[in-house]
Structure prediction request, 176 residues.
Amino acid sequence: MAAVFASKQGGTINVLKLSKLLYLADRESMSRYGVPISFDNLVSMDHGPVLSRTLNLINGCVGGSGAAQWDEWMNDRDNHDVSVRKKFTRADLDELSTADLAVIDAVWTQFGRMDQWALSEYTHKNCAEWVDPKGSSVGIEETTVFTALGRSGPEAKKLAQSVKVQRELDRVFSRL
Prediction:
C-alpha cells in the first residue's frame, strides 16, 4: 500500500501524509468490506490515527520479515519522507486484491491533494474512533471503528472478532 501511495505522489511521500492515507485506506476497506487491507494494529497518536506496525516500519524500528518486505519496496526514511525503491506493475502487487486497489484509488482520489496537516486535521474531526493520546499512543479497538462507521453494536463486535482472528492467524503463519 505504501508503495502505491508513494507512486501516486510521484515516488516520494511525506511520512505523516502516508500514515494518514494508509489508515484511511484500512478504514475505508472496513467500511466497504468489513475487513482492513493491512490487518495492522490501530492506534491514536497526536496527529491522528495510524497503523502501528507500519509506522514502526517507516521509522526503521522493526526487524524480521516485515522489515525485509518493507525494504524490498521502500527506501529508508529521509527526514520526513519515504520513497519507492523500485518501479512496479499491477502484477507485482500480488498481495493486494482488485478490491484493495479500488479502495486505495478511492482514498487517493478523495485525499491525495491534501497535505499532511490537512489530513491530520481531517482525521481528528472525522474519525470518531480517534482519541487524543496527549503525547503518547492509545490503541483503537476495531469494534470502535466499526461503530464509528455506522455498524450496529452486535455487528461491530462480530466484525471486530473476525479481524482479530485473521490477525492472529497471520501472526501464526508468519512464524512458520
The mean pLDDT is 93.
